[in-house]
Amino acid sequence: QQQVKQSPQSLIVQKGGISIINCAYENTAFDYFPWYQQFPGKGPALLIAIRPDVSEKKEGRFTISFNKSAKQFSLHIMDSQPGDSATYFCAAKHAGGFKTIFGAGTRLFVKA
Amino acid sequence: NAGVTQTPKFRVLKTGQSMTLLCAQDMNHEYMYWYRQDPGMGLRLIHYSVGEGTTAKGEVPDGYNVSRLKKQNFLLGLESAAPSQTSVYFCASSAPSGSQAKNEQFFGPGTRLTVL
């Protein structure tokens, strides 16, 4: 039972373009929505995260947009670079707990 | 700080064999987790621990056992390996609720396991 649905499965973007990855969740009891970045042969690492009381969070070229009423959130990578090529996972954490539910992942390839 | 380390990095087993995956963290984290990563399925929680001496089942616990005898170590065991357990296994840790970095999980580099 996947509680966090992520799309697309894979994405190819030209260097300098905008990469957009979308996620939707069902459980309204989530209180923390992180994005993890994973390079081949490595473990995932936290990239950026947002709480549901904020509609947008920006860190450098990475922005999370959050729509609480639609139960959707997305990651935008501006000015995408070949070094951004990785797998990205959205996730959601249960309020008051610590278990995190991960999306299926999106493989991003940025063409030079 | 080494962060989260996993041993071994790769392993090939035959069906029915047993093995133990070792995870160690040096960040004094209370919470530790074992995930498996399969194509198109994301990361699925196998077992987790909220402290030394405690363990609990996650989303996909069947066929696995765990132990947390020391705070810094979390072991994942496969008693009788099956081809369906071919996967990449990740260990992670996080600080407890109430701490500043309570939500972030720190992952190890993974163990790639093949069961023939």
Task: Write the topology of this structure.
The complex is a heterodimer of chains A (112) and B (116).
Chain A: E1 4-7, E2 10-14, E3 19-25, E4 30-38, E5 45-50, E6 56-59, E7 62-67, E8 72-77, E9 86-94, E10 100-102, E11 106-111
Parallel strand pairs in A: 2-11
Antiparallel strand pairs in A: 1-3, 3-8, 4-5, 4-9, 6-7, 7-8, 9-10, 9-11
Chain B: E1 4-7, E2 10-13, E3 19-25, E4 31-38, E5 42-51, E6 54-57, E7 64-67, E8 73-78, E9 87-94, E10 106-107, E11 111-115
Parallel strand pairs in B: 2-11
Antiparallel strand pairs in B: 1-3, 3-8, 4-5, 4-9, 5-6, 7-8, 9-10, 9-11
Structure description:
The complex is a heterodimer of chains A (112) and B (116). Chain A has 112 residues and is mainly beta. Chain A is built from no helices and eleven strands. In chain A, a hairpin with a 6-residue loop joins strand 4 and strand 5. Chain A is globular, with a radius of gyration of 13 Å. Chain A starts with a strand and ends with a strand. The model of chain A has no long low-confidence stretch (mean pLDDT 94). The termini of chain B are far apart. The radius of gyration of chain B is 14 Å and the shape is globular. The model of chain B has no long low-confidence stretch (mean pLDDT 93). Chain B is mainly β and 116 residues long. The interface between A and B is medium-sized, with 23 and 25 residues.
Task: Considering the chains and any ligands shown, give keywords for the structure.
heterodimer; A: 112 residues; mainly beta; 6-stranded mixed beta sheet; 5-stranded antiparallel beta sheet; 58% strand; globular; B: 116 residues; 7-stranded mixed beta sheet; 4-stranded antiparallel beta sheet; 11 strands
- Report strand % of chain A: over 45%
Shape of chain A: globular
Counting DSSP E segments of at least 2 residues, the number of strands of chain B comes to 11
Give the averaged pLDDT of chain B, no decimals. Answer: 93
The major beta sheet of chain B can be summarized as: 7 strands, mixed
Which structural class fits the helix and strand makeup of chain B? mainly beta
Most residues in contact: chain pair: A-B, 23 and 25 residues
Report the mean per-residue pLDDT of chain A as an integer.
Answer: 94
From the N-terminal CA to the C-terminal CA of chain A, the straight-line distance is 38 Å
